[in-house]
Specification:
Elements lengths: L2 H4 L1 E9 L3 H9 L1 H4 L6 E5 L5 E6 L3 E11 L3 E5 L19 E9 L2 E11 L6 H24 L5 E8 L5 H9 L19 E4 L7 E9 L3 E6 L5 E10 L4 E11 L3 H22 L1
Length: 279
């Protein structure tokens, strides 16, 4: 079977209430990237340049730019050396490609993403699933930033933990009653667009709107007490290695540094307590 016919790809399309120029800047300017995507970014513009995306010591990828058409198209390879090797040759797989198409339409912008090159084998399943789910949230973050907070720096909390438990057990322990959101809240059964109320470790209630809900993997919400900022919990699992990764992130725009740091520390403590007590 032809390899191209068996490759998998992630495809997303969304309308953003912003100009094509603003969307292009958000995709290609390091300061803009850090306002919605990674906590650290570097950009060497143009074909032959690169975009570096970094989440602390956990992910640090250099993306080689293949096409650079300002306001219209951006293509780059995806974070070198993270794809599984070719099962037949044992050699590194060909690079994954990220392709953004930007089109102005009716005073807004339609952004199309194609992330291609995922193999058909089971050795690709975890990566494909993680990237598919990741872009669902990250593009939501991009739209949220450009439509509500364009030009404002983001205060970003990003936490990673690796508990000795299955993904199902971690999900139930964190989102069920008595978990991360307090004894009176059970957030294990929500739907997109639903309003919710829960406790928070900052001492004030947590209310907002569910943006993403995909048990036992993903919960993301727009939170009133963060001035409309974003809260995300996602859980990845690698059963063949006996590994479960828990990630919690909080994006605040317009909050001062001290306040954002206090919020981050409160949630870090709450996550550690909930994992220790319920998992």
């Amino acid at each position: 079977m032809d390899q191209k016919q068996t490759e998998r790809r992630v495809e997303r399309e969304m309308e953003i209430d912003a100009s094509p120029e603003a969307v292009w800047r958000a995709l290609t300017d390091a300061a803009e990237l850090m306002r919605w995507f990674p906590p650290e970014a570097e950009v060497t513009p143009g074909v032959g340049g690169e975009i570096r995306l970094k989440w602390g010591e956990h992910w640090d990828g250099r993306c080689a730019i293949q096409e650079w058409v300002p306001g219209a198209r951006l293509v780059y390879t995806w974070m070198e050396n993270i794809a599984p090797p070719d099962v037949e040759t044992g050699q590194p797989s060909k690079p994954l490609l990220v392709d953004f198409l930007i089109e102005g339409r009716g005073g807004k912008t339609v952004l199309r993403l194609v992330h291609s090159g995922f193999g058909p084998g089971t050795d690709w399943d975890a990566m494909y699933d993680g990237v598919r789910r990741g872009w669902l949230f990250e593009l939501c973050s991009l739209k949220h930033y450009l439509e509500r907070f364009e030009g404002l720096d983001r205060r970003f909390t990003w936490l990673h933990r690796r508990p000795a438990a299955s993904r199902d057990a971690v999900w139930a322990g964190l989102l069920g009653a008595g978990g991360l959101f307090g004894a009176g809240a059970d957030l294990s059964d929500l739907y997109m667009g639903e309003r919710f109320t829960a406790a928070s470790p900052t001492g004030e209630p947590m209310t907002g709107v569910v943006e993403i809900f995909g048990p036992p993997k993903d919960f993301a919400a727009r939170v009133d007490q963060l001035d409309g900022g974003l809260f995300r919990l996602h859980i990845d699992a690698y059963p063949d290695r006996g590994v479960t990764d828990v990630y919690l992130s909080i994006s605040c725009w317009g909050r001062n540094e001290a306040r954002a740091s206090d919020i981050g520390r409160a949630w870090e403590g709450a996550l550690d307590r909930a994992l220790a007590e319920s998992v």
